[in-house]
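Reviewers of the previous submission asked for a worked example of the structure-prediction workflow described in the proposal, so we include one complete record here. The input consisted solely of the amino acid sequence. No template or homolog information was supplied to the procedure at any stage.
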Amino acid sequence: MKAVILAAGRGTRLGLDLPKAMVPVDDRRTIIDYQVENLKPFIPVENILVVVGFRKELIVARHPELTYTFNERFAVTNTSKSLLKGLSRLDEDVLWINGDVIFDRGIIPKMLSAGCSCVLVDDKRCGPEEVKYRTDGAGFITEISKQVESAEGEALGINLVARADLEPLRRHLELVGDNDYFEKAIENYIVQEKGRFLAVPSDGLFCHEVDFPEDLERVRAYLASGR
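From that input alone, the workflow returned the following structure tokens.
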């Protein structure tokens, strides 16, 4: 099992000149500190790969023990191309995480025990900026994007691709546009090739992306509660 953290982006909407992964969430930890801390009980540190871009040297200096790959086109591409970079030389099951997500440690074993490619979800009301999903009767994803109508809830930014699905997912990541999110490649694989990604419910465990200042406030309040 490998883990990939997508940390090439910049915290523009937070008003910071930092990679989003380097945003402080308490008096001692950044987002990536917290992610690595929660991954290490389940995935060896040498198996954690970080896709970097904007001001990559800050992340590398903070965590020299991790492995890195550089998305040199980070300023003009979206998460689909960063994920493609991260998956390019891997040949095993891969858990991947957006570099701006704070999550309860209990989420990782839920994902690892799914037994197939999967997407972490929450059956909540969603706004226009959230990635939404729908499923079939067996709980597998049928649609996943910001444009899903009559959505069942939100895709939370933590996903797993089984080794058997790696090659077709990479192919669809190559085919989508530079500005597409990786969810477009997942949806195309599902629709065009009958790929299967199970929706894994978070079951109330905390998982929240930091996009705006109010998200950062919510995350800091969660961590201040002793998590």
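The helical segments are 31-39, 56-62, 79-87, 107-112, 163-175, 182-193, 213-224. We consider this example representative of the routine output the project will generate in years two and three.
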